[in-house]
Amino acid sequence: YKYHIQKYNYYEFIGDTMTCTFFGHSNTALEIRGKLKTTIIDLIENRSVDLFYVGDKGNFDKLALSVLREISAVYPIRYYVVLAYLPKEKSDYPTLFPEGIETVPKRFAINFRNKFMVEQSDMVISYITRSYGGAVKFVEMAHKKKKTVINLAE
Questions:
Q1: Phi, psi (degrees; rounded to nearest 5) at 95
Q2: Whether the Cβ atoms of residue 121 and residue 21 lie closer than 8 Å to each other
Q3: How far apart are CA 26 and CA 96, in angstroms?
Q4: How many whole angstroms separate alpha carbon 141 and alpha carbon 109?
Q5: Which helix (H) or strand (E) holds 125?
Q6: In 3-state terms, what secondary structure has residue 58?
Q7: CA 50, CA 123: separation in Å to the nearest integer?
Q8: What is the number of other CB atoms lying within 10 angstroms of the CB of residue 74?
Q9: Which 3 state secondary structure label does DSSP give 124?
Q10: Cα–Cα distance for residue pair 62/88, rounded to 1 Å
């Protein structure tokens, strides 16, 4: 590849960093962007969250990424789009490729990536309106791992 993909390095992220990730339905409506932005800013200002992981597969991920890009001009945060697959072209946002994902069969790569995101995060912002789907599975995992989960749909 002609571009750099940041590989995850645990030692680069340890310390006092508070981390948040996102899980929501791929067909999430754009109307929740304001509530998402307010929630992210609240976590930065009141919970000291300064590192964010976001996927790259649906509307909720796109909304989260657009908010993170916008507020990173104002707040000293870091954010990474966590990839499940090697991209075909260079991206204009910071990306991260979880260690070991290259050994996972392609059909399990998104699950591997999402599990990584849950395990590395202290908090989860979600948009869950139904009881099935991938977002639901990983929000349930976050609950079981005692992560703080904020569902914007509630």
A1: -120, 160
A2: yes
A3: 21
A4: 17
A5: strand 123-127
A6: coil
A7: 11
A8: 9
A9: strand
A10: 18
CA distance 80 to 53: 5
Q: What is the pTM of this model?
A: 0.88
Q: What CA–CA distance (Å, rounded) separates 1 from 19?
A: 29
Closest by CA to 47, choosing from 13, 11, 75, 10, is 75
Alpha carbons 21 and 122: distance in angstroms, whole number? 8
Write the pLDDT tens digit of every residue in 115-141. 999 999 999 999 999 999 999 999 999
Token pair belonging to 144 = 């079981």
- Dihedral pair phi/psi, residue 140, rounded to 5°: -60, -40
- Per-residue burial over 115-124, b if 16 or more Cβ lie within 10 Å, else e, is ebbbebbbbb
- Closest-CA residue to 52 (of 64, 39, 36): 64
pLDDT digits (tens, 9 = 90+) for 9-56: 444 454 578 999 999 998 998 999 999 999 999 999 999 999 999 999
Contact 135, 55 (CB under 8 A): no
Q: Do 23 and 138 form a contact (C-beta atoms < 8 A)?
A: yes
Residue 127, phi then psi, degrees to nearest 5? -135, 95
